[in-house]
Amino acid sequence: MTAKAPLITAENLTKTYPAQGKAPAVHAVQGVTFVVQPGTCTGLLGPNGAGKSTTMRMLMGLTRKSGGSLSIFGTDTESLSRTQRTRISLVPQDDNLDPDLTVAENLFVYGLFFGIARATLKDRVPQLLAYMQLEDKADARVSQLSGGMKRRLTLARALVNDPDLIIMDEPTTGLDPQARVMIWQRVLELKKQGKTILLTTHYMDEAQRLCDHIILIDHGTVLDEGTPKQLIARHSKPHVFDVTKPVPAALGKLKLGEYESEDVGDSILYYVEDAITFRKQLPETATYLHRPANMEDVFLKLTGRKLRE
Amino acid sequence: MPNLPHITTLLIRFWYEYRQLWTSLFLRDFMDRLIYLLAFGFGMGGVMAASHGNSYMAFLVPGIASATGVFVVTMAMTYGVWERSSNTHLWQAWMATPLRLLEIMLAELIYASLRALPSVVILLLLAHFWLHALPSLTGALLAFPVLLLANLAMGAVAMCFTAHIRRPLHFAYVNTLWTTPMFLFGGTFFDMAHAPLPMQYLSQIFPLTHVIGIVRPLMLGQPLNLLNVATSLAILTALTVAGLAYAHHRFQRRLLD
User: Fold this and answer.
1) Once rounded to an integer, what is the mean pLDDT over residues A16-36?
2) How many domains is chain B partitioned into structurally?
């Protein structure tokens, strides 16, 4: 595979929000370096306050960087041309749809902002509504939509300019399983069409399912990055045994206590290299769940279990 | 530099909004003005002598017409702009497209300034045909570009307030420090030439004073003092440009830093 020029390049990117009154300055991003390859889905993961949304806001030119460099299509984000800006879309974390317009007008007007001809939009808007299963709601007001519908409309709005790069900030947070699956399907289809996607999510199953490449950040710095498989292999044993308490005393030569483990309340997680040997040591009375290690294990290992704001 | 097609597309968005809300927007704008005109025109007019051959009602019509912008544009540039910039974050949605902050601010300002005009048209038609208190229709027609400029100036100043405050509660100051004194000291109801000198000076800071200074003689069919007209137009233009520049600077810091 030949290496293509990256679509997004961040080098030593920093963002400090200045002190306001009694509130001290916030160092939201502290020297982040990463690239996003074209045609991939890259996940930016981290706990609340890790610096994900700030990074995305800088990419969209919604907030100015304090230091380092950040470029899209090889151009600094603060000097992108109008044409370049029409190739980028944002699905923001909070739906900021236009409450004074109908569902269809929301898409139509947003398309005009990108300089798309009215005639094109007259075809494209109904197509997008159908694609997001909103065609019955074309004339409804935004306030009449459910949370899931608003999210789908926000996603439809981000597709109205047929962008090359779509930045999605927690696209499925707060959605029911049906809506999440639908959005996953759409993301995978967009990827197939060759679009580049940068997304944040708090759902590790989602990240593992959708992302070709994952960048884990916390406290404004990159902790590690790689494919989901690479990250799991690097930071976790391949097998996880979730053994319900009370955990019986070990039998055989190896003691359970010698395994890497973590108490999660009503059960203990054991991270295990050799599943067969481990299972042999468990008494038949033990209640347990055996699963492969996943991104959630990696995430908790790298960012800790302490609650964030 | 702001891009004209971008501003136009935003004005289309505002047109869509207006199309849906025009009955309530228009009725509110118009009824408020009509109530003042009838109450003061007949009430005060009953005890005031006619001057220079014009009734008090005829004196009042250009004042009320000019003051329409004080309320309509100020409301739109305070609560309206706050709503979209800091509550629903619609501005952020717009800034995620090729639209720039200054273009958004300009479109907001132009829309609000234009929106204040239809109720003035109806008010003036009523004044002419029903109240017989608008001597010069030609003058009224010529007044519209001036009214528009004054609306832009008043809106730009109001946007500075909005860019400054942290909570919408603080909009109470706009009424106390700006809208009400401008409405009362700006020459809507009285000729400030009879007021003590300090009050006359104070009245000069209000855009309303300058627009009334041009529009009143126009509508009454009286000669204009060209030097005064030029000075007033220059002040209104300067307020528009300076207000926008300052509000843009503040919004940039709030939204982008």
Assistant:
1) 89
2) 1
Q: Which residues of B82-108 are buried (b: 16+ CB within 10 A; e: fewer)?
A: bbbbbebbbbbbbbbbbbbbbbbbbbb
Q: Closest Cα partner for B176 from B37, B41, B74?
A: B74
Q: Which of A243, A235, A239, A241 is nearest to A293 (CA)?
A: A239
Inspect the interface and report whether the beta carbons of B97 and A109 lie closer than 8 Å: no
Q: Is the pLDDT score of B8 beyond 80?
A: yes
Q: A70 and A77 in contact (C-beta within 8 Å)?
A: yes
Q: Which of residues 134-173 of A touch B (CB under 8 A)?
A: 157, 161
Residues of B in contact with A142 (CB under 8 A): none
- Cβ A72 vs Cβ A80: under 8 Å: yes
Distance CA B11, CA A40 (A): 37
**Backbone region of residue A206 per phi and psi (left: phi > 0; alpha: psi in -120 to 50; beta: other values):** alpha
- What is the residue range of B77's domain? 4-255
Supply A273's token pair: 């290299």
**Inter-chain contact A18–B257, Cβ cutoff 8 Å?**
yes
- Which residue in the set A64, A90, A105 is minimally distant from B256, CB to CB? A64
pLDDT digits (tens, 9 = 90+) for B110-128: 999 999 999 999 999 999 9
Cα angle for residues A204, A206, A209 (degrees, 5° grid): 110
* Chain B residues within 8 A of A61 when measuring between CB atoms: 95
Residues of B with CB under 8 A from a CB of A: 3, 5-6, 9-10, 12-13, 16-17, 20-21, 88-90, 92-99, 255-257
Alpha-carbon span A130 to A152, nearest angstrom:
11
Residues of B in contact with A157 (CB under 8 A): 93
**SS3 state at A166:** strand
Query: In whole angstroms, what is the distance from residue B191 CA to residue B179 CA?
Result: 18
For residues B104 and B93, what is the distance between their CA atoms, to the nearest angstrom? 11
Instruction: Report whether A48 contacts A64 (CB < 8 A).
Output: no
Q: What is the largest CA-CA distance in chain A?
A: 75
Query: Where is mean pLDDT largest: A50-59, A273-282, B137-146?
Result: B137-146
Are B95 and A61 an interchain contact pair (Cβ–Cβ within 8 Å)?
yes
pLDDT of residue A308: 63
